[in-house]
Specification:
Helix content is 36%, strand content 21%. The longest helix is centred in the first third of the chain and has 12 residues. With 272 residues, it is an alpha/beta fold. The chain has 2 domains: 122 residues, Rossmann fold, CATH 3.40.50.1000; 91 residues, HAD superfamily/HAD-like (Rossmann fold, 3-Layer(aba) Sandwich), CATH 3.40.50. The strands form 4 sheets. It has a 6-stranded parallel sheet with strand order 5-4-1-13-14-15, sandwiched between helices. Strands 7-6-8-9-12 form a 5-stranded parallel sheet, with helices on both faces. Strands 2-3 form a two-stranded antiparallel ribbon.
């Protein structure tokens, strides 16, 4: 019998066909792949399953991610990713067709949105009726000022993801959720978040792959995004302690994972 950190039976993981994997803090930290990740991914394939990376990190395009994981030795193509950037583009196309978007984000995010067919500007523009913020690793005080100008108008306000921090080699840096708090302090406005924990990303992947919720499992390191997404989408959720979440967070918080492991290496070892 397979057991998790708390000794709970996790045999159901043997039968999962689709593994929805977070990235930052789950399979790598910045540019350092975690020990056991390659074995874990190979194991999924050998058992007849498939993995798809679903990430809230909108600072990179899918092409950027493909290049990044390839350098790490991970076999993955464009079809093996679904990002908050893609989900955001889809959400805007479906709900606000033809409208102009002002975006505070990286050049990769802006390019990806434009390539999806959206009209995107990066300077204050009277024609923009939507303000979108993402995890901007290229942020400047001028961008923040311009975003405050735009939020002073009657606009739809969206954000790619609510993550407060992103794990890096020396600890954490502020993510999109923290940026939204700063902007709220200045403007009084709060965005609607597109990415995890909203079920949009998981629902899209399930639809595209033809998998049922009970055939899938999500693995991640954040309770309020990764694990909450599993709950909201009706998919089993595995938390790993290799990123943001701690044991005390799990024991004291309201969001509980279905299973808990130290890291993906332990999942691989348990499933062997």
């Amino acid at each position: 019998m397979i057991t998790d950190f708390y000794g709970r039976c996790a045999d159901i993981l043997k039968r999962k066909k689709l593994w929805l994997l977070d990235m930052d803090g789950t399979i790598y930290n910045e540019n350092e792949i975690f020990d056991g990740t390659l074995d874990f991914l190979q194991q999924i394939k050998e058992h007849g399953g498939r993995y798809i990376f679903i990430t809230n990190n909108s600072s990179k395009s899918v092409n950027d991610y493909v290049e990044k994981v390839t350098r790490m030795g991970i076999q993955a193509g464009f079809e093996d990713f679904y990002t908050s950037s893609q989900a955001t583009a889809m959400y805007i196309r479906e709900n606000y067709p033809g409208q102009t978007v002002y975006c505070m984000g990286t050049r990769s995010l802006v390019t990806e949105l434009r390539e999806s067919g959206l009209t995107v500007v990066t300077e204050p523009d009277e024609n923009a009726s939507i303000v979108l913020i993402g995890f901007d690793t290229e942020n400047t005080s001028e961008k923040i000022r311009n975003t405050c100008i735009m939020l002073g108008r009657d606009v739809v306000y969206l954000a790619t993801n609510p993550d407060l921090v992103c794990p890096v080699s020396f600890g954490f840096i502020p993510d999109c959720g923290s940026m939204s708090i700063m902007l709220k302090n200045a403007t009084g406005k709060e965005p609607f978040f597109i990415g995890k924990p909203e079920p949009i990303m998981v629902d899209c992947v399930l639809k595209n792959t033809g998998c049922l919720p009970e055939e899938a499992v999500i693995v991640g390191d954040r309770l309020y995004t990764d694990i909450a997404t599993g709950k909201n989408a009706g998919v089993d959720a595995v938390c790993v302690l290799s990123g943001e979440a701690t044991l005390s967070d799990i024991e004291e918080g309201d969001i509980k994972p279905d299973f808990l492991f130290r890291d993906v290496k332990e999942i691989w070892e348990k499933l062997r």
